[in-house]
Structures are given as structure tokens and as C-alpha cells.
Amino acid sequence: MNSSRKLVASVAMSVAFVLGVPFSAYAGHDDDGFDPDNRSQAVKGFSLTSNGTTAMNHGKAQLEKSVITTSWGDGDIRVYDANYGDNGWHGSTDCVDWNAFMTSCDVMRVRFNQYQYKSYSEWKSLGCHEFGHTGDLGHRSKSNDTDNNSCMRSDRWPQYFDQHDLNAIAAGT
Questions:
Q1: What is the pTM of this model?
Q2: b/e for 5-23, b at 16 or more Cβ within 10 A?
Q3: Per-residue model confidence (pLDDT) at position 31
């Protein structure tokens, strides 16, 4: 009887250890809450300007470079652009429909703010950045993007996911 209690305690401690160890692929880069519900995402734009269309098309193309496949159609990622005013953000991504267990997002909303001027390349970068959030990526900083090449930086305008981003999407979805 004493040995079975030790075995149960040992198994419980092992499980607690495994669940408590963070996955290194996230590297502080997981978005903590925008996990897509699957690896196949339908994208639809709603009354987009040409800048919003540029951002959406580029973001969708960047997401396609990851383990997530995309298609055109309503259902998973809904994209809008408008003049949202001087609120401090160029783009925003949020979940508008969580799954029944509140563990992943069935429908995400991407919004591009037309208020601030952005060049063509900055619109592409913004699309990559916001679509990165739909793949569960969080923001990157100088400390974890030392070569300054990730569109997940909010203080720079790179246009593409780097390998770290792609690895984090694969590990998180």
C-alpha cells in the first residue's frame, strides 16, 4: 500500500512538472488567447479601401507561409478598415466568437485604422502583423528580434514573418 501511494505521488509530481514547464517555441511570443480553432482559416474583407485590401492580401499570404492554410470566405477571419480616429493604434485583432470551451477563437476580427498615414510597404507590414495575431503570435521586441526582421515588431515595419514567427505558429496551433 505504501509503495502505491509513492507511485501515485511520483506520477502526480511528474504531470505537474510537465504541465508547468513552458514550451520554448513560444519564447514569450504567444498571444495568450487568440489561438485559432484550427489550421484552416477562411478570410473575408468587408467594404475595404485599397489600403485595407493590400494589408489583408499580404497578411493572408504571410499566414499561408505557416502551417495555417487560408481560403476566401466568411467564417474565421473578418477584416475591416475605417477611420477609427487618433486612438494610438494602426491595427487591432480581437476574438469575437470563442469556442464552447473558451480555449480557442472561432471568429477573429482584424481592423486596420485609416486615421494615420502609412506607405504601401507599411500597409503590407500592418497586414502581416495583424494576421500574425490570428495565428496566435504576440508582439516581438528588440530583445527577441535582434535582426529586426519580424513583422510582429510594433516599433518597426518589416513586411514578413521570420523563422521564429513561423516556428511559434507551428508550435501553438
A1: 0.80
A2: eeeeeeeeeeeeeeeeeee
A3: 52
CA dist 66 and 59 (Å) reads: 11
Q: What is the structure's pLDDT at 29?
A: 54
Distances 152 to 61, 105, 173 between C-alpha atoms, Å: 15, 20, 17
**How far is 132 from 1, CA to CA, in rounded Å?**
53
Write down the residue that cell numbers 500597409 correspond to: 123
For 85-138, give the DSSP string. Answer: -SSS-SEEEEEEEE-TTSSSEEEEEEEEE-SS---HHHHHHHHHHHHHHHTTB-
Cell numbers at residue 70, please? 487560408
Residues 6+ apart with CB under 8 A from 133: 31, 34, 93, 108, 110
d(CA 78, CA 2): 58
pLDDT of residue 134: 94
How is residue 35 written as a grid cell?
489561438
pLDDT along the chain (173 residues), means of 10: 44 34 39 74 96 98 96 94 95 91 90 95 97 92 85 92 93 78
